[in-house]
## 1
Amino acid sequence: MGEIPEKHVGQAGSHEQRASSTAGLPDQVGNVARRTMEELAEDIVASQGKSKFSLGPLEKVYVFWLAGMSCDGCTVSVSGATEPALEDLLTGSIPGVPLVVLHHYVLQLESGDHYIQTLVNAEQGKLDGPYVLVYEGSIPDENLSAGGEPFAGEGSLPLWAGSTERRRVSTAEWMKRLGPGAAASIAIGTCATWGGIPAAYGNITGSMSLMDWMGKDYRSALGLPVINIPGCAPVGDNFTDAVQAILLFLQGLGPLPEFDELGRPAWQFSETVHTHCVRAGFYEEGTFAREYGDKECLVEIGCWGPVVQCNITEKGAIAHMGGCMNSGAPCIGCTMPGFPDKFSPFYKAPPGSLLSSNASRLLGSVVRNLRRISQRERNREIRWHDSVPSGWAMEKGGTSITHKILEVFYEALQFQGAKRPERDPQKKFPAGYRSLPERVYGDQDYQVLPEDRAKKAEKRA
Amino acid sequence: MCFKNLPVEFDAQGNAHLKGGVADPYAYQPREIKRDKLEELLARNGHIKDVSISPVTRVAGALSFHAVADLQERKFLDANSIATIFRGYEVILKGRDPRDAIYISSRACGVCGGVHSTAACEAIEMAFGISPPPLGTVLRNLALALDFLYDHPLHLFLLAGPDYSQVVVQATSPAMWEKAQVTEAPNAEVHQFKTIGDIMKGLNPLSGKLYLDGLKMTRTPREAYSVLFGKYPHPQTVVPGGMSSTVTITDFNETYTRLQKMIDWTKRMILLWDDLTEFFYEYNPEYKKVGARDANLIDLGMWDDEVSYDASYARCNEWGEARWATPGVVMNGELVTTKLQQINLGLEEFVEHSYYENWTQNGNQRFRTDPSGAPLSPNHPWNKETMPKPSKESWKDRYTWDTAPRWDRQVVEAGCYARIWTTAAAGLMPKNDFMEATGHSLKFHMPKTMLREMDFEWQIPAIWNAFERNRARAYCMGYNLMMAYTMVLKAFDYLRKGEDKVSTKFEVPMGERVGVGFWGAGRGYLSHHLVLDKGAIVNYQIVTPSTFNASPKDPFGNPGPYEEAVLNTPILEDFDKPSEFTGVDMLRAIRSFDPCMPCTTHIYGGEREIVREVNTCACSAEG
């Protein structure tokens, strides 16, 4: 974890160290440390001395995080990521992974024009490394706001070069200005990937996804279409996982990260959330939750999991913990392009479940009962015959004749083509040798509980 | 008598009615903003500086700020708070199945994860006439206590914290940095930072221990939250009539161990913010004026008592006062009401300086009274019809996408500090082992962990400023933590009794229904106002804490809380030339509110098409 010896930071804090990248600006308004967060990050890295060997061609990558019609939920999710953790990326603490210089309005030290200047530098090609764009939130149609304040603005620029009058710049415009020069453009969260709630029926801002806005022909400087990491909010680790995978690939270390036909990381989104669901077994056996809080499959109280591509039940929500269905929340399809309108109204069973859950109920009622029979036998030690020495309950020792007959067939199948474990210790020794149980108990069945043995002996006597 | 300005009186039984003899009781004459003098000064004086910060970073969402600073007199002459995003959320909700409101309104803000879904849920419960079983309410309380345990550290150490870090203090006040390095921290024995300088180093972005630990500690409560409620933000376990969590012993154990970790850390951090605050006061008492305002605060309370809460409007005063955080309005430091109905009646929203048209002009008022028959203003959210009128930014006319909510036509601010204040002052907190509201303070006891057991007391402060907001937020971590702890014990208790039901069945009613969710966010006050008819949403309105705090000037000429706080802030940073001015004092004032813009500008767009006036925009120029 990237904890830096504090004495180095003290040196890093002195602002005379070198010229600031925003030195050209007329004043210091908003530049509260008189140096930007980027410079601070670099100072921290520099304080650790120059590395003797490098694991790849990239030393640092700028990441510009832009927000449109966003709720900041994606930012919040990513701040919770631990595989890798945000702070490890931002301090260049992962061997082989270049330093990620994040430019994010929620974390940035500086405000105002000093914050915006780095975006301007990027557009003018003045950065000393490649940059990646991350867009959170849907993109409004700023044609609807033409002539006035944009729906989603970030920073302001002179109206024309040298003008003292300024105009607020929309994040949609930033995207168009910076998009072509970006090494990659990543849409994070369902708003940016598919439009999400701001783009749902009834939206008056013309909101759309990043793909919709940049168009089918958009390619980044590395030739990539928009990369989509959906979810509302997305699993934070899905983002840092994808970023690290891409960076390690670019360094010539990691395998090629694959993306599906909608630009999603294939290893994260190619299966349905139901496949890895902790409740999928209940579905298989045809048992369903009747009310909220029940432990069974949630399909009949509004879960869309079987048709939704997401990995939260496997990956967890944070640090491999939680995940919607894991804790009892029905899936409302928040990673899907059809969200929310094609999953509404929430809490109502999806129509498809009428067929599928009844089919599994039918099959499940047979399978479930057969499984309980074999489960009952498997819940018994090999030495439990007449009684079970559990002080917890009146567990019956003997089993019914039907059970015994079924078990004979079951075992025959179980060991078909395989060796059944040898029960007689005598057969494990050379001929003529008497095993310990035989010496003590004779040729009586010794695989019984001590108290049963006493009873047996009594019976024989 | 809680209202000073509204034409509403209460009789001996506490029933509200309009004062007699007033023709148009809620009418008012908007006051013009005069800037001629200011512009003259700006044109003439070299030391009068037009300060425009776009964007203000280290806040959630899109905020810009404009101010006019007199760098010679070291004060601010004008301030404008600007919300720069508009999403039209509530128009998306209109005409939908009410069941969609919970998950759609949740997405108004992803900063505090489940507050909107819960507020929506309470509004729906009122409209549907249902309420959760006891364990359902207890789980909800637990979720919303864990929520803030992520939220407050995020603000204290990642958003506001860097403003008090070595890199910023050294750059804007070198002498203070010198002093800090040799000033011993009084509580060093507990928090382990020997000097104030060590604390400031700890707050350095990306490298300081407090910064990095703060980030990590935001994850611990989110882990517990995710285990019990699925994910963070936007949990899908909030359902009308309760929760849908399947509670297991393991879930509670995992939560319990995380609470234990947080108790240890919180003990340290509360005392650390005490030390930092006192250092600034001692270094220069002028810092007491940074972000200062009269203590005018509002809160709706939250964390229902599982026995009293029945979601009905008729009984809202009773179940409101039974809450673990007491609703209330504080005026000039005095608590004037703790009744939810009165807080609701006093609420009005104004749009004179926002990019919306006034909806009261056509004279159609949906509700003249609330469901209990008390008079309701045409400016109340239940009557609101917000009609966007995007226009050019003008400091005299309209300059933000935020509206101006007011209570009794006075400027009130919201925050977790308002919540702890109204709770402390009312002294109505339910009896329990760990917390006590005394009428002038909130005491809480934190059990032994790695550190010894400790008692804390948050005293209602005599002054109100940026430092007190942050200090109160640090104490709120302790309050919320012991709240979460109490709720875990309560949940255990219900499970021991075998009362493990967490939800109630419901059906969507077809008639006209009204509901309101009185709740709280990480930053305080949160209300959702809902009107249903024929099984669909007819009107949906959200008022959030930052709607209050980031609000522009109102028609009575009063600036919004951020604006007022900046106007009262002295310029204390060091600079030789005007071009070296950074605005750090003003940014400290703004950030102390913990601005959260996503939900401020959720705003409902009305039925009209958006019509733009075509003109060029000149952000810093006066229009």
## 2
Amino acid sequence: MSEHHIVEPDLKFIKDMKRAGGDSMKKCFQCATCSVVCNLTPDDSPFPRKEMIWAQWGQKDRLLSDPDVWLCHQCNDCSEKCPRGARPGDVLGAVRNMSFQHFAFPRFMGTWLSRPAYLPLVLGIPFLLLWVLIGMYGNWTVPEGELKYSNFLSVPAIEGIYITLFFLAVIAMAVGVNRFWKSMVHYHGEKGLMGAPVPNLLSILPGILAHRRFKECDENKERYWGHLGIFYGFIGAATTTGIFTVVYYYGLGIHSPYPMSNPVKMLGNVSALALLVGALIVTVKRFSGDDKKSSYYDWSLIVLVFGLGLTGWASQFIRLADMRGIAYQVYFLHLLFVFYFFAYLPYSKMAHLAYRTVGMTFARQAQRDLVAKEDIA
Amino acid sequence: MSEEKNLGSILVVGGGITGLTTAIEAAEVGYDVYLVEKNPYLGGRVAQLNKYFPKLCPPACGLEINFQRIRKNPKVKYLTMAEVESVSGQPGDYDVTVKVKARKVNENCTACNACVEACPVDRLNDFNFGMDSTKAVYLPHQMAFPMRYVIDEKACKGSSCAKCVEACKYDAIDLEMEADTVNLKVGSVVWATGWQPYDASQIDTLGYGKVPNVVTNMMMERLAAGNGPTGGQIQRPSDGKVPETIAFVQCAGSRDENHLAYCSYICCMASLKQATYILEQNPEAKVYIYYIDLRTPGRYEKFLKTIEANENVVMIKGKVANITADPESGDPVVVAEDILGGGLVRQKVDMVVLATGMQPSTAEKKAPLDFKYDEHGLILEDPQAVGVYATGCAKNPVDVTSGVKDATGAALKAIQTMVRR
Amino acid sequence: MEKKLGIYICTGCSIGDALDIEKLTALAGTQGAAVVKTHEFLCGDEGAKVIENDISAEGINTVVIAACSQRVNFDVFNFPDTIIERVNLREHVAWSHTPNDEDTQMLAEDYLRMGVAKAKRMELPEPHIEEDISRTVLVIGGGISGLTAALEVAKTGYDAVLVEKEAELGGFMNKMYKVVPRRYPFAKLEEPSIGAVISEVTGDPNIKVYTSSQVEKVAGQPGKFVVTIASPQGAVETTAGAVIMASGWKPYDANKLDKYGFGQFPNVITNVMMEEMAKNGPITRPSDGAPAKSVAFIQCAGQRDEEHLPYCSSVCCLGSLKQATYVREKDANAKAYIFYKDMRTPGQYELFYKSAQDDEGIFLTKGNVTSVGEGDGNSLIVEVEDTLLGEPVKVSVDLLVLATGMVPTTVDDPVLNLAYRQGPGLPDLELYNGFADSNFICFPYESRRTGVFPTGAVKMPLSGAESIEDATGAALKAIQVIEAVSVGKAVHPRSGDSTYPDFFLQRCTQCKRCTEECPFGTLDEDEKGTPLPNPNRCRRCGICLGACPERIINFKNYSIDILASAIKAINVPEEEENKPRVIAFVCENDAYPAFDMAGINRLQYSPNVRMIPVRCLGAVNTVWIADSLAAGIDGIMMIGCKYGDDYQCHYAKGSELANYRMEKVQETLNRLVLESDRVKILQLAIDDYDKLPSIIDEYMEQLDGFGPNPYKGF
């Protein structure tokens, strides 16, 4: 038996957790139905029963450094079967949301993204920044001739901002994820770890790309398609942007707008469609579920996905339809969403793409994820 | 108090242990009582029990005393196969309509059994939860009170067969008997319609009805009872094998807001008691009790200690939330997290007993009175109410002792209504 | 009363097929009956009419009905002011023995003779009715149970006298800051409503309240208790018809819980102390008066612990959930920890648990508290193992509350102070950990002092709401006993019986057996040791009759003579006939119905056994054994209820006493060089009917080994 561990419940953490989607966590009475019905948990020290009591007891550090939290894909089989309405799936989702906050670099950014009170600030900053930028380098009046968004704000200006934002986000993300990894190592200890991070990462990638864990869910099967759409929608959008920027603009010197028949353009449009369809599936599910709860983090992401996709598409069609009256306004909105996307990526729910990958890598290292038959084989 | 004085009448609805108690206790103070029971016999759920916890004494013993009290007391009048259809009026003066189903066997019945020997039709025995069968004419159970046979209308072929009518020397069988309506005038009403076992097939994770040899605790009572389907030998329903390993699944439907949000009070004690049934017949058997909290309040604790001391009984903290059939043997496999042991357990056993809870009978059919109910159909009694009362498991899941105490109090409340007049 | 006997033999239900009815009727004709009739359907309208007509037209006043068990058709064969003896030819003869067999016929004939013999000696009971029955109920204890009982008694039109030891009414409820919700949805703590109950009681003209008073003595019997109350004004004497004992509980002595630091650290308190503190203001640390920002509760502080209280106190889980809730209500930043073994919130209280735990500042876990020590600055460190957090934990708290348990007041105080020969309190409380509980699941108000009903927490650990329910029932039982004794009838389990034991005291030798052995303390004694009967205390079990070596205790319809003559009525065949005869004295409550069940199931057993139903095995006098053996009976079975701690005897001690007495009989048999096992005592439950054939067969085999009774023919 290990040493007695001094336990000091963190009331603030409990309050934050409740706000981040875990408001039902105190209802748990530790029957462990959740651990039994979960198709993703290992047999040894299964989740999410133990996470539930840690959450109830405000055991912040323990939860935030628990790789099991990232094995959970929130199919909510446990929440459906929970006899107390404690919704363990949502509680684990809240822990993940809390991770974005807790490991955030700089930390205040985590707080900003954690609740709606900061929304004016969070939206106001890019709004003002873009406004000022357009004032300096752009032009609100649409000139005669072909409708081109580069007339509104020049491509170098846009690239200047967004490439900077992109790298800042990558740095922030790296710092946050590094903190997360260290914390997991600290709590887990060296014992029982197997292999090195990179090979482990590579070994889990196929599973992630195939969305294998989503398929294990009994309840909520639609989420597999929803997440798949959004996931590959983003990958497609990122690829489109990357090719246009690096190959076309800077490499070949071919400037936008690109014709609709351009294969890269087509990829972009398909990706936007995937994003929107995915987001639609997820949203419909959220509204149709009997007592499904969604946190601020969830809604922020859904609004962002819709916003990016819709304003992107709208800008394109407005340009093709030559609807000069609203073109720049819509494009401005699109730029705003893209700004939000990059600037807040390490702190919003989007950050899970890094945290989950890292968490799952650690879980592989700690041999916690060998549940799915494919993994064992 | 002289016998002749008419103090007023009390209607007691439900002839289980609580209703019986209310009726007899009030009658022994000197009041006339009408006891209305849905089944063809009195005794209700406890008549189906093999033993009471914690004394492990037969419920028939206490029922016998209560029936003796009825035999000696003409103030208790009982109607079986009867249900109250309507109650109108006010405290002290209620008009009650009771619908009495056709028993098709009249008071001439001597319980000689000749009709059963003649009857060609079988029916599933609901008293034993369908684990065996009786003829279409049958004695509800061997210790039934009143000791009178009854014909299952649904199973009986009617006058086209009438073999029983020929067999009966006493003109006791009347296949043309119709349902009857009885009107009563009473001063107060006590609702004691008790409970039903929660329908285990509603709990989709626990395999009841799908996985063989998953039974409920009430079925276990019948399996262990001498007058049960197996003559008291505990056997697996699928193949008659004597189970060597048995898992008890506590809170099967209770303490669960998807089913019954409340705790059914008796199931922990019932499972401990049933562990003694199993170990008495097979001391080498292994009994596993999966629980959330072991609830043996008060002096029941002593019973828990006794059972715990048996090394063949293992208590595991963790609720079973999955039962499947082993693909090879077909045996049930229970899955739970052994919380104190630190991992998921997948255990193959010979037999599983689901400790299902008590659902008030009023969940299915409300009383024709203006009671309020909670979401599970439990009667929410207004402490200020006069004239109409609820008692026992119709308002709160309790053990027999608590139910009887409450029933005794309900008798007083019913009497007070009359005193006020 | 000049007896005019009618014998009615039913031939229905296979009786006529199994027996030679002509022969039986002929035998009946020799029994001095005015009328002997047979009928093929005696329990039918016509059959019953036959008897009725004979009663009214022929003046028949003593009826022997040779038909089915006395347990059926009780309503058909119910003729007022007539002596009725039922001879069970159906379940006990025709259905359980070979039809048209010589032995079966002999059995039926013996039963008929025995029935007639009994009927001839039985008399109609005349109730013993005392004058001036008091319709006042004495209630001891002014807590929630006592207050409720007194109020309910008064609401039913009877008077109550309430005696409370303390200066204030209300008991522990009066010390409560908040109470656990009693009503759906069981979510919010309730304000204690005891104040309203107290004023209702003090304002009721039919309730007389004595505070700062104690019951010094209760003498007499139900309907006529004479109660001496020691009040501040001096001794007061009053009468009462019944007694409700609601003296409640006291907290377990926390000084014995030094393992949790009580007495050592000032910041360790009990749940009772916590309640008082909360009632009086903020929750603080006793050591320095600083606000308690964190409070830990240890459940089962002494309970469920063989070294302290082996039982569970039922309400402490609810109590700690309540206290944790108000710790948080009083200070939104406070923390409350509860360490439990099992969270016990049975029934709908589960809903309270559910609502209480849904508070961010309440921390619950199963666990065993292994140590309590001092931390920094007046704090306490509580170490807990086997927790649900997956590892041992320790918490630092300002205040530690021990959820101590309930100890019944009866544990060291008789409370009742009965002026009874058998002592001032209720007997056998050690069976119930000192609680004044009933041993019967289905009869929770049973006590071994007639007319005395323990209720509330003195009976078992109960919540306030449960106490109210319990006390309401106790009020009914108190009223019921008053009504019963006012018409000279017995209460449970022989409710309605108007017989009572007659003592022919001229022949009493003051052996005190009856006064010592009565399970209900019915008999007092004068200074010489002569019994002083108190008929209203009597439960009519007949255990005194069984005890009396002088055979001077008898009931009108159950006496030494009646049963002795039934024994004599048995025809004992000559030794050469090789037909052993066995008498089985069977308890009419359980063993007799078991034999009925055996008959219903057509189980077959030896026809050489003659059953004699008795009120209780304790109501078997050894003289009947001697008479039987002297008459050449080969063996005697005594079949009664289980005895021991979990006794099933409805008279508590009957079967145990029978066993004790039979040991003595067996010693005597050994002295007489008779096999002691010729007298066999057996414990049988009502549902053991399936075992009866083998029990009897085994006994008959054993008896066979002994050979015939050597006294046969003397």
